[in-house]
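Z., the sequence and structure:
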Amino acid sequence: MTRPTGARARASADGLRRTFPARPAGDTAATTWWGRAWVTALTARSRDAGRLERGSDLAARGSVDAVTVTPGLVLAYVHGSRPRPYRARLRVRPLTDDDWARLLDHIADHPAHLAALLDRELPPALAEGPVPLLPGAGDLIPDCTCPDPVRPCKHAAALCHRTARLLDQDPFVLLLLRGRGEDDLIDTLTRLSVTRAAPAPGGDEVTDDEAADPYRPPPLPGVRARDVLAAGSRPPVPPPPPVPDGPAAPPSYPSGHGGPDPLALDQLATQAAARAHALLATGRDPLTGLGHWADAVRIAAARPGSGLTSAARDLYARLARAAGRDVTDLHRAVAAWQLGGEAGLVALEEPWDPPAGPFDRARPALLAAGHPRPRPERNRLTHPAGDRQLRLGRDGLWYGYISDPGREDWWPTGTPGLDPVAVFGALPGGGA
């Protein structure tokens, strides 16, 4: 059983948080009966069909950023007419423990319901059974940070349409909104089915404790504390677990009025997890010695399409302001980082005096290749026209730069390399 590729999401370790990536423009309206029912639950409380239609258009244009789903809450940034996106939320009541007990019994009594869920289908007999899963009119509560006093606004409506498409692809998203993650549900239903199929109490397969608590999780591997502390020889320490293939998604974060932005916390936690995984796998912290400015450049360089969207422009402005630099400096530094990482940033901002060797051999090599005699200055060789430049990095690589003649406005370009002639020749106009 595999999840559909259109619903790929990062999930937290406890399964109570899933983050779905943004979708490009062209997303269609809900196609399943339960996806359309989700939209109907929001439209039933609206008195302005125009706002709902504009919300549908926003969703179709790809204006909804990554969607985070946790029990009782759907959250995303939605781009509207202003540069800064708005934070839209949809709330729905999670089921109580008694509701879940009745729902799980109902599914266990009808194995076809679980089979349908695993096939990413939601049978009406399950959704409308003893514990209704889909929200009714008034059960779906929209909220948004935009100044529109009417709810739902077009941003919340856009998020509703985007969520309906997620429900189309994976009904377990609806069950997560009602309070239980997919893995937890499947494990619980499996144990419940085994318990019901077991012999009557007194048999060998299931103990009395297990029969009394069908939701009891299996025991965890390890060494009991009383065995470790007992007198005599100690059992061997269990071997360390293998290093995971990659960092897990961070847990869910609560949101509230005046509290920290849960999406910003998610970004920080995701970066911390990646850093911890690299330290665990290699024994080396990849950010050791990275200063405040270099870290801001690293964060900005990790955003594809930087500078092209309003969200990226806002990120660049905030990072530059926090580092005490201007946005142009940040764009230039990002270009250097994307070419050579931290070493590329050093080549951009730190002139130095290289020892005898590669730097001295570069000038005659350029002359032999038919290029004019460059002007040397510290670790830099500049074309006489003042429009092209090579910089020797502390990593031994040559970095190419271009500028308008006479402006000294150097921007990194090209691919760094060990051969100064090849790097220079690859620059725009480098053959001249």
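The chain has 16 helices and eleven strands. The two ends are 60 Å apart (CA to CA).

Let me know what you think.
H.
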